[in-house]
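Input.
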Amino acid sequence: MSDTAVFDVLDGLYLTVLDQVRREDRWLLWQTILTKEQRRNLVEAIPVSAHDRVLDAGCGFGALSFDIAIMKNARVVGVDISDSSLELASRINEELARILPVSPVEFISGDIYNMSLPADSFDFVIARFLFQHLDAPGKALAEMIRTVKPGGYVCLIDIDDQLEIQYPDLEEDVEGLYRSFRLLQKLENGDRMVGRKLTNYLYNAGCEIVVTILRPETECRYLAYDDPAIQFEMERLGSARSQLITRGMITGDKFDEIMEKIRRSYPRMEWRTNSEVVALGRKKTGM
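Output.
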């Protein structure tokens, strides 16, 4: 069976479970669905060979783990701290195992700062969209480096909000809601500007820097409110409603008013561009 046919099955499975995910996590699954082409283009380029052992740190719903296993015929271990995400990933893994001859993926519950994995046991360790959520990125990276073999690769991929542009410009109150959303992640010790820092993290940890890549994506199209990209944005903002209100950053009425304003602004023509930063390092001998 071709990779295209395999991915048709996999993508269909993710769509069927969308309504079964907790409301606060649904935007993450939308992100998984919407970024599939960008993610698979990345997998094509990474230096992973058949039968390599790969660790997907912060694997979430397992999408990157599956893509690497299918496209590279690698042996993949996905680690995440969220039991609900791992439960869904494991269900999809079991379904794939029934119908497709894909390379096995193993999912493990674990803390990125202290993974129960042997040292020097992986050929390639990767983390996508993880470091924006971490309050101790250096500690997490040290643990990732511990698990990779000398000469093996460590790959970090993440966002940087200053690389995101859209037109028409957002109205002031809508932009204010997005600022509050970004501030909330910062207050929870996250970092939405982390993309620019990834290469320095690898260098400071003692890795050899192989390459740093900026992967832009641009589109201009007529968007209706029910477009998946807009539904992703609404789910993402909606997931933060209670936290924003609890922290006194906005009232419930004002939040709902702005969300309704966003809804009424569609359909419209919209231009958007954003980029993800890829930093690839290699573990030096003796580390």
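The two ends are 41 Å apart (CA to CA).
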